């Protein structure tokens, strides 16, 4: 695995720098987070939360639900995660771990290295 690091407004995964929120899939591939799926909720929080719409989109991309969902909630931990996401994940037997992005990134790298079926949402700012 290449370099993994993060700072305000960016994340490096496997040596590739991203300056936007990302999804990391169980196979280790990285996609841009589709925040537009949660845009209607932005006014409630001042920024875009991780919503059930995004969660459903992530599940459809993964094909098979991940065993674990790691959410990097930002450098300061301010990304709201909607309660319906946590409820639906529990119904599906998916363990959700929410940590500030630096800690989430470390955990994600460890879980992927161990071959765990894990997906992640990484918020790069607040």
Search tags:
five-stranded mixed β-sheet, 8 strands, 126 residues, Hypothetical Protein Mth938, Chain: A, 25% strand, 4 helices, three-stranded antiparallel β-sheet, alpha/beta
Structure in words:
The protein is of the alpha/beta class. The protein has a single domain, classed as 3-Layer(aba) Sandwich (Hypothetical Protein Mth938, Chain: A), CATH 3.40.1230.10. It has helices spanning 42-45, 52-62, 83-91, 101-113, and strands at 5-7, 10-13, 16-18, 22-24, 30-32, 68-72, 95-99, 118-122. The radius of gyration is 13 Å and the shape is globular.
CATH architecture: 3-Layer(aba) Sandwich
Sequence of secondary-structure elements: EEEEEHHEHEHE
Percent in helix:
25-40%
Structural class: alpha/beta
What would you call the shape? globular
Please, what is the CATH homologous superfamily?
MTH938-like
- What's the arrangement of strands in the largest beta sheet? 5-4-8-6-7
Mean pLDDT: 96
Strand content: 15-25%
Distance between the termini: 27 Å
Largest sheet: 5 strands, mixed
- Report the C-alpha radius of gyration, rounded: 13 Å
Indicate the CATH topology. Answer: Hypothetical Protein Mth938, Chain: A
* SS field, number of helical segments: 4
CATH class: Alpha Beta
Number of structurally distinct domains:
1
Poorly predicted regions are none
Q: In total, how many beta strands?
A: 8
Concise synopsis of the structure shown:
The chain has 126 residues and is of the alpha/beta class. Helix content is 29%, strand content 25%.
